[in-house]
């Protein structure tokens, strides 16, 4: 059971908007820890998709955005495209673990 | 460019020690201030942080759930870092990734996993 809770799956049609939630606690997101989002394609290593504060690494389109409130964070994807189909993970620092924690991952299906 | 490559036995017997090595190429493992990390992923499941070792001083940090069985070390002469997990069980069967935990100062100060190996499958079975 992951410290951060994500929905196992979300789906949407091309062009639509989807959001993926990441729920933590007062020992991680609620404590102000930065939240990062990674995308993983089948058989590949995860790759950073979004920094905290809605900052994007170079090359990531502005269709991707993040937000944070209280003990939760969210990733939003607008203008859904077929190539967005992948697994998405949130990651942050947890004071109880004294280390990194990941969400359980969300499989995005583009219908 | 800097690359990471995991290596080690793909099959480990229960109760034995699971040992993996990550070789860093393209730069010295001692350059910069990084945390060299291990992360694993059981088939069809999410990512689990295992632990890390800091370039400076070799300070380690372990996932509490694995701490009693875990050891991560650094070999700067070989540009490698290693993982040893004792008393392996079927629950340790997973794809193991090595990764670099780095700091960036732009657009803000962040620590995140910026480089990953391709991952290696380790099966614990008799």
**Biggest interface, and residues per chain?**
A-B, 25 and 27 residues
Proportion of residues in β-strands of chain B: over 45%
Biggest β-sheet of chain B, characterized? 7 strands, mixed
Instruction: Report Rg of chain B.
Output: 14 Å
Helix share of residues of chain B?
Answer: under 10%
Could you give a short account of the major beta sheet of chain A?
6 strands, mixed
Q: Write down the Rg of chain A.
A: 13 Å
Structure notes:
The complex is a heterodimer of chains A (111) and B (126). Chain A has 111 residues and is an all-beta fold. Chain A has strands spanning 9-12, 18-23, 36-40, 47-50, 64-69, 72-77, 86-94, 99-102, 106-110. In chain A, strands 1, 3, 4, 7, 8 and 9 form a six-stranded mixed beta sheet that branches. The termini of chain A are far apart. Chain B is mainly beta. Helices cover 0% and strands 53% of the residues of chain B. Chain B has strands spanning 3-7, 11-12, 18-25, 35-41, 48-54, 60-62, 70-75, 80-85, 94-104, 110-116, 120-124. In chain B, strands 2, 4, 5, 6, 9, 10 and 11 form a seven-stranded mixed beta sheet that branches. Chain B has a four-stranded antiparallel beta sheet with strand order 1-3-8-7, with no helix packed on it. In chain B, a hairpin with a 5-residue loop joins β5 (48-54) and β6 (60-62). Chain B starts with a strand and ends with a strand. The model of chain B has no long low-confidence stretch (mean pLDDT 95). The chains are: A mainly beta (111), B mainly beta (126). Chains A and B meet through β7 and β8 of A and β5, β9 and β10 of B.
């Amino acid at each position: 059971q992951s410290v951060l809770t994500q929905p196992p799956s979300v789906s949407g049609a091309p062009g639509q908007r989807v959001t993926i939630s990441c729920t933590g606690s007062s020992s991680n997101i609620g404590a102000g820890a930065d939240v990062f989002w990674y995308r993983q394609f089948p058989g590949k290593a995860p790759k950073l998709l979004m920094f905290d504060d809605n900052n994007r690494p170079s090359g990531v389109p502005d269709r991707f955005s993040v937000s944070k409130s209280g003990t939760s964070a969210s990733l939003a994807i607008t203008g859904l495209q077929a190539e967005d189909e992948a697994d998405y993970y949130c990651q942050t620092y947890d004071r109880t673990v004294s280390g990194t924690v990941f969400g359980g991952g969300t499989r995005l299906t583009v219908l | 460019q800097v690359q990471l490559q995991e290596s080690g036995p793909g099959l480990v017997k229960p109760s034995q020690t699971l040992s993996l090595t990550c070789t860093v190429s393209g730069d010295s493992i001692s350059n910069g201030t990084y945390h060299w990390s291990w992360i694993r992923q059981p088939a069809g499941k999410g990512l689990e942080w295992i632990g890390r070792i800091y370039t400076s001083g070799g300070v380690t940090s372990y996932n509490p759930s694995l701490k009693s069985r875990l050891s991560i070390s650094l070999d700067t002469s070989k540009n490698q870092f290693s993982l040893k997990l004792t008393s392996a069980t079927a629950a340790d069967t997973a794809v193991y990734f090595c990764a670099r935990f780095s700091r960036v100062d732009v657009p803000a100060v962040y620590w995140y996993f910026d480089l990953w190996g391709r991952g290696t499958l380790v099966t614990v079975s008799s």
